Structure to design on (395 residues):
């Protein structure tokens, strides 16, 4: 779970969740929506741009159609909008309870709206024939809807009433197959689309801070015991606290009295000896052991700094690849849509050809179709030895 609070942004407070499903065999699976998401949406009025993120389906009446149409055409939204058309002779309350069972795996990724008969007719008039919703059908409007482009309707998945009825149980709930069909489009739409710029910047800042935090923790852990005083004897097996019995000056050396050693250990001694035994495997604590311990920590510190530099470089390359992946995904989506439109046009043309062939076969005159001859100036150029040579047109 990530949380962002920014005073200089239209997205003042943002919470977003990421979940990964795993089975007992550690193989990835489709994760279910955490209960925390539904509980959060039931407690807080959350919005994606102007679209409310709803924990349960909302009934839309004729007076609310303009508002729903604004949600559908909102260019700033990231979640999908699932619109459910009414079924004849079924009450809105009963149909709404059935639709509620569809939202389990799409909570937080889509908002569901159940239309009344009057709202259904009014919304279809506003959407147009290409984006209209048949009776009893469910349509998922992904972001960036263009009602002026009929080919855009192919991006918004439509489940017909026939498919829905097959997945409706006797208890007026939907089976797992229909739930999966309804939830897969909103979830893929969020996974495949890049995060908003502000959220992406926040994620990258957190990733960089995590690298820096690792370095800081390593540096703080490297200082385990304070350094021994400079006047420490060579062998530290019997450290002592030196207590002065008098003062001495250069003018009166006779007043110098001997020092008396105490058997009380310094407070850092036991910790330092334990550290030397743990790191170096030595029982004797002397100046050489302290030097080896310092060299060991310098080597570790050098390795940490090298690893941090490598991690920062990899983080930079990761950000560059993410930006490149976003660009390629947009290009792929545009090409896939263009290909789908081309294939649909090809199917229509083939259907028309078959219809014309059947029409010709039933005619009594049995006319034969003669294709027109290709004129010289319409001929394709001739390619020879890698050179393009155009045919001459005789005059």
């Amino acid at each position: 779970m990530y949380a962002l609070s920014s005073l200089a942004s239209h997205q003042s407070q943002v919470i977003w969740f990421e979940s990964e499903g795993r089975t007992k065999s550690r193989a990835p699976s489709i994760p279910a929506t955490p209960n925390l998401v539904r509980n959060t949406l039931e407690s807080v009025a959350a919005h994606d741009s102007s679209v409310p993120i709803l924990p349960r389906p909302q009934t839309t009446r004729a007076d609310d159609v303009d508002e729903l149409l604004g949600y559908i055409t909102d260019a700033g939204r990231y979640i999908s909008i699932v619109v459910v058309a009414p079924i004849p002779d079924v009450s809105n309350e009963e149909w709404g309870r059935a639709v509620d069972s569809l939202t389990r795996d799409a909570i937080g990724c889509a908002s569901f709206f159940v239309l009344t008969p009057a709202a259904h007719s009014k919304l279809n008039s506003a959407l147009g024939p290409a984006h209209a919703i048949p009776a009893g059908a469910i349509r998922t409007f992904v972001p960036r809807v263009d009602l002026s482009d009929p080919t855009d309707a192919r991006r918004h998945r439509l489940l017909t009433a026939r498919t829905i009825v097959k997945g409706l149980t006797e208890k007026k709930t939907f089976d797992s197959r229909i739930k999966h069909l309804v939830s897969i489009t909103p979830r893929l739409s969020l996974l495949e689309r890049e995060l908003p710029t502000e959220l992406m910047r926040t994620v990258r800042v957190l990733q960089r801070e995590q690298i820096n935090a690792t370095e800081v923790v390593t540096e703080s852990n490297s200082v385990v015991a304070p350094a021994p005083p400079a006047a420490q004897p060579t062998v530290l097996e019997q450290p002592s606290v030196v207590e002065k019995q008098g003062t001495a000056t250069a003018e009166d050396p006779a007043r110098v009295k001997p020092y008396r050693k105490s058997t009380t250990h310094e407070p850092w001694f036991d910790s330092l000896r334990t550290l030397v035994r743990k790191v170096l495997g030595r029982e004797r604590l002397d100046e050489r052991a302290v030097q080896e311990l310092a060299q060991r920590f310098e080597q570790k510190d050098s390795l940490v700094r090298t690893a941090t530099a490598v991690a920062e470089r990899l983080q930079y390359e990761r950000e560059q690849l993410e930006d490149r992946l976003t660009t390629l995904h947009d290009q792929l989506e545009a090409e896939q849509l263009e290909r789908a439109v081309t294939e649909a046009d090809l199917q229509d043309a083939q259907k028309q050809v078959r219809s014309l062939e059947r029409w010709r076969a039933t005619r009594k005159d049995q006319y034969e179709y003669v294709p027109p001859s290709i004129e010289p100036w319409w001929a394709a150029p001739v390619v020879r030895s890698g050179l393009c040579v155009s045919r001459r047109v005789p005059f």
Notes: Residues 199 and 205 are 10 Å apart (CA to CA). The first helix runs from residue 35 to 43.
